[in-house]
Amino acid sequence: MQFNGNLIAGLATVICLSLQAPTSNAARESKKVDDTPFKAQAIDIPPADAAVLAMVDARDATSLNGTWNLIVDPMGMGSPGGFFGGWATDRIPVDEWQLLEYNYASSKQVRVPGDFNTQFDELFFYRDGVWYQRHFDASPVEGKRYHLWFGGANYTTSVFLNGQPVAKQVGGYVPFSVDVTEALEAGDNDLVVSVNNRLDDNSVPTKRTDWWPYGGLTRDVYLVATPDTYIVNAKVELVSTAGGIRGRVITANAKRGTPVTLALPELDLEITASVDADGVAARQSDAAPELWTPDNPKLYDLTVSMGSDQLSDRVGFRTIETQGQKILLNGEPIRFKGISTHEEPIGRDGTAFSRADMEVLFGEAKALGANFVRAAHYPYSRHAAQVADEMGLLLWEEIPVYWNIAWENPETMAIAQDQLRRLIERDWNRASVVIWSVANETPYSEPRMRFLERLINQARDMDNTRLVSAALLGDPRRELKDVAMHLAAYGADREDISATERAIFKAMLKQAGGHAPAIGSGFNLVIDDPLGGLVDIVSYNEYFGWYYARGIAPAIGVSEQTVRKLMFEFMESITISADFDKPMHLSEFGAGAKSGKRGEGVWTEDYQAAVYRAQAKMITNSPQVQGITPWILKDFRAMLRTLPGVQDYRNRKGLIDENGRRKQAFYVLRDFYEGAWGNPEQWNQNVSMTPELTLFPSRLLPADNVLPAFDDDERALFGDQTPHETMTR
Ligand code: GCU
């Protein structure tokens, strides 16, 4: 159905409506038809194809990346079916008499892939609809099918080819494609894509996120040609550390019995299986591949073939599991020496979309001594896991079920399930990916439990070779109360605080009576969020060194300075554990620092470094903690962060700034990873943490930048680097 009839349709609607007897409100309500002539009538756009067309880099794909036309449409005027006719095709006035109120060719020129927010200053904060358009030539041939493939677009995307509505995808960050064989024309084709990065209470995530909602065609766009009968996807996995390789190939339009072959030439292995009634061919075979590890990221060339269709990939084989409170990689205990990231490149604003972007970003994680990255809070481009496979970085991948979500809305559930499915179907062959995370910091409720349990079960049903987790929040209210009481114990007799504050602390202890904690009596924070019972690794976000003081100080009437100073000492006596016999992972902790800002107090590099030192003690005190991903590798764009001259719409918790300049804490963490905690051969040496070791005051970098030597404990922790070397290299 071509759209040049809109004008007539629109006009006809107006005329008939004005001729009808005025409709009663009740009747209008019951008809549920919005009869305002200027509002576009919703048109049916089929959803994108359910299955992820995988291994796109091995397919016969024509890139549609490059410069596209862009119309900004905050009022949704482009939607087809309205009075204004819509912009689903690139129309040029036939003559000076034709009224058209848009023109793609003379509109903005935008680069694809990439977000639109950082390509135009006026769109930096923009969160609404835009229309992309380009022409491309095609020469379709018989016996082939043609698919438009998108690596990801944020957030609601509708695709039109030659005026045909061909696909709609709700949910950013994940790949989707659509078979357009029928709509594709020989010669010139007119491709129009509307993308809207507006979020609401029912979206995933909802509209409030501590990251930039980069919108648009943020990832690659291809026209992919396949034979009529083709391979959609394939999953290969190691059966166990003892060996064995299992393969499963998902096909389209293949007759039952059609042979499919998986080949791993370096292993001299060919697995042939027949397509079953569901279009799937699966088989297992003996094999003893060299196992993939971060230190030895061994990858094998894989080919998957069926008839004239052949795809290739590079895959690694490893097992990941938990045993009690231990994490085992290929049967051996491992600790996640990690760092959290956002999908932003170093040195440029906007979303990271290229392989090179990920190589640089993950290269900095490797330089930190990390063997693990938490790719927060949404699926990154396919390049992320491919680069991690090659670089030897274990990956935590996550879907943006973030903070509060409409837990009881079935559409919200469907979007989250769709994102999880597409992420898993895209990256289930990536050896680096060891954790699927289904959520971040979601407050406890029964509807939340039900929602997340369904996602956890979905992940396990689709892929039982990886671990499942979620970043928990704990119970801040209860924890802060306990923390405040412990701080009172530290402050009650301090000479370097005001008499009023001492009195307040004494009063708190008196009130607590027999429950009052003693200095250094240790504080065991136990995570008992019931979701911990459903996941494989209990992951927890904490900000003892940053946010807690801001909540506690006003609540007890003591200065934030005093609380922060006491907090540093108190942190050394904290142990974190979980109410579940499972490994724990600190999925976030950290502090903000403006790169180059030195001295005392928040936002200085010295303060951030001190937080990391205190955290190092907490982690070493906490034997159940087998992994950490401090927040965060690089300062990143965030609309929540407005402090002029410091944040300027960036979250400043990075260990490097937006241009890659390393802050002091980068070296503190790197040396921690080079020290005892990070090295298996030293794990059984228990490095005792003496609570009275007050790190903070003595570790502030004096003006002349020379730090007193480490004491024994710190040398054990940070290896034999001098603090000065640590700080300034
Ligand atoms: C949260 C959240 C992050 C956020 C961070 C912060 O824990 O998960 O998305 O950026 O805290 O406040 O910096």
Strand-helix topology:
Blueprint: H1 6-19, H2 25-31, E1 60-63, E2 66-72, E3 108-112, E4 129-138, E5 144-150, E6 156-161, E7 164-170, E8 176-179, E9 187-196, E10 221-227, E11 230-240, E12 243-252, E13 259-264, E14 269-274, E15 280-285, E16 300-306, E17 309-315, E18 320-323, E19 326-329, E20 332-333, E21 336-341, H3 355-367, E22 372-375, H4 382-391, E23 394-398, H5 410-427, E24 433-440, H6 446-462, E25 467-472, H7 476-491, H8 499-512, E26 523-527, E27 538-541, H9 547-556, H10 560-571, E28 574-578, E29 584-588, H11 605-621, E30 625-628, E31 636-637, E32 650-651, H12 664-674, H13 695-699, H14 712-718, H15 723-728
Helix pairs in contact: 3-4, 5-6, 7-8, 7-9, 7-10, 9-10, 11-12
The structure holds alpha-D-glucopyranuronic acid.
Residues 210, 377, 440-441, 541, 588, 631, 651, 653 line the site of alpha-D-glucopyranuronic acid.
Q: Your description of this structure?
A:
Residues 686-710 and 717-729 have low confidence and may be disordered. 24% of the residues lie in helices and 26% in strands. Helix 5 (410-427) runs parallel beside helix 6 and helix 7 (476-491) crosses helix 10 (560-571). The chain is built from 15 helices and 32 strands. Strands 21-22-23-24-25-27-29-30 form an eight-stranded parallel β-barrel. Strands 3-2-4-9-6-7 form a six-stranded antiparallel β-sheet, with no helix packed on it. The radius of gyration is 28 Å and the shape is globular. With 729 residues, it is α/β, with parallel strands linked by helices. Residues 210, 377, 440-441, 541, 588, 631, 651, 653 line the site of alpha-D-glucopyranuronic acid.
